[in-house]
Write a structure and sequence with these properties.
Elements (H helix, E strand, L loop, with lengths): L4 E7 L32 E5 L14 E3 L19 E5 L3 E5 L5 E5 L5 E5 L30 E8 L5 E4 L6 H8 L17 E6 L5 E6 L14 H5 L7 E7 L8 H15 L8 E6 L11 H9 L5 E4 L8 H13 L25 E4 L5 E4 L1 H8 L6 H13 L2 H7 L7 E4 L2 E4 L3
Parallel strand pairs: 1-3, 2-4, 9-11, 9-12, 12-13, 13-14, 16-17
Antiparallel strand pairs: 1-8, 2-7, 5-6, 5-8, 10-11, 15-16, 17-18
Length: about 425
């Protein structure tokens, strides 16, 4: 069974408690405190496993809890740190906070391993609390609690080119002809219920990855049928190929089909319509009309919009080579970096809000904001993207940094500098 989404519960380990004990040795009547520190709780880590291609395993195991750190011991013995719990997922898995739907991490591209929940810190033993006035402390620090979260895992296929179209128009047949993929093919609606990936090899070592996206229906963007399950796989594709039944063997209108699918793509994510598109007018070997050429009708309708039409027969292979090379040339015109979903949700830890920062005005009149809290935030935020910059602005507001800048006398147009990043301040 193919699975492309799952809801699971994750929890990091609790830190071990610090220990309370006193040194007891012969001839040492007052040896002092010697309780050791507790060990750190286990982290929850997600890691890409190249051998996986579905989320099926998460349908059977839905709870993932890391071990707790070991308690400290006497004689200043430090409790053992717990092992981290590593959860293996296929490449392309997006981890979201279940409550808000915001992205925590995208396990794609160079992001092969990421800590999602940190384990709790171990507590300090009583040896750390001895002072000149309190030489025999009878207390120790408890370990920090672990953190828990319900997360939604979504697998979004990573492919350069996506084949889209209504059921039974020949997408699976086309993919099986041009690549090494072996999808099941039959003359039934919704034969393909999961995406298939294939590598298309062209002359001279060129090539790309093509995905057969399961057949869409009208209303898919509202979740009708398996709409959302299908549409999420299109989000990473850089070029879309509309496959239509040019011969109308089942009485469908190819033009209406393309318009309907584009409407569903726009309703789901308007950015999808900005991707380069071509039309594969399939089943031309079954065209028997002498009065009008359905391919010419498609060209007159869509080529003025910049969408080229290629007549093909996925069964015989006619016209397929021309289609593939045209798609390859289109790929050269778009960004070759994989589509990665930006981080939108940051786990709040008890100690993070206590990290210090400073707001000062330098000799040049610039307002400089520095400190480990700021440095940490900039380390995981991509300010070059719109979502990343919105996340950055929200951080400044919610953490009181904007209020401190105003209290320091900042005015509109003044420069704010943070670790090499400089921007003008405007309300």
């Amino acid at each position: 069974m193919f699975a492309d989404n799952a809801k699971i519960f994750i929890k990091s380990g609790k830190g071990g408690d610090g220990h309370v004990s006193f040194r007891k040795e012969l001839f040492v009547p007052a040896g002092g405190p010697d309780g050791g520190d507790g060990g750190k709780g286990g982290d929850i880590i997600f890691e890409v496993d190249p051998g996986l291609n579905t989320l099926t395993d998460f349908r059977h195991v839905r709870k993932y809890v890391a071990r707790d750190g070991e308690q400290g011991g006497k004689k200043r013995c430090h409790g053992a740190n717990a092992e981290n719990l590593v959860i293996k997922v296929p490449e392309g898995t997006v981890i979201k906070d279940f409550e808000t739907g915001k992205v925590i991490a995208d396990m794609s591209g160079e992001n092969k391993r990421e800590t999602i929940l940190r384990g709790g810190k171990g507590g300090l033993g009583n040896m750390n609390f001895a002072t000149p006035t309190m030489q025999a402390p009878k207390y120790a620090q408890p370990g920090q609690q672990g953190h828990e979260l319900w997360v939604q895992l979504e697998l979004k296929v990573i492919a350069d080119v996506g084949l889209v179209g209504f059921p039974n128009v020949g997408k699976s047949t086309l993919l099986s002809r041009v690549s090494n993929a072996k999808p099941k093919i039959a003359n039934y609606h919704f034969t393909t219920l999961n995406p298939h990936l294939g590598v298309v090899d062209l002359d001279g070592g060129a090539g790309f990855v093509m995905a057969d996206i399961p057949g869409l229906i009208e209303g898919a963007s509202q979740g009708i049928g398996l709409g959302h399950d299908f549409l999420r796989h299109i989000e990473r594709c850089r070029v879309l190929v509309h496959v239509v039944d040019a011969a109308g063997t089942e009485g469908r209108d190819p033009i209406a089909d393309i318009r309907a699918i584009n409407a569903e793509l726009e309703a789901y994510n308007p950015e999808l319509l900005k991707r380069p598109m071509v039309i594969a007018a399939n089943k031309i070997d079954a065209v028997y009309s002498e009065d009008e050429d359905p391919v010419e009708i498609l060209k007159q309708e869509f080529e003025p919009e910049g969408i080229k039409v290629f007549p093909i027969s996925a069964v015989s292979g006619k016209g397929v080579k021309e289609l593939l090379y045209a798609v390859y040339e289109l790929l050269k015109t778009v960004n070759l970096d994989p589509v990665i979903f930006e981080k939108e949700f940051e786990i709040e830890y008890a100690g993070d809000r206590n990290l210090p920062y400073t707001v000062e005005q330098n000799e040049d009149g610039e307002f400089v904001v520095e400190g480990p809290r700021i440095e940490k935030m900039l380390g995981y935020t991509n300010l070059e993207s719109e979502k990343g910059f919105q996340f950055f602005q929200k951080f400044l507001k919610e953490n009181g940094i904007l209020d401190e800048l105003e209290a320091a006398g900042i005015k509109e147009g003044d420069t704010v500098r943070m670790y090499g990043l400089a921007f003008d301040y405007y309300k």
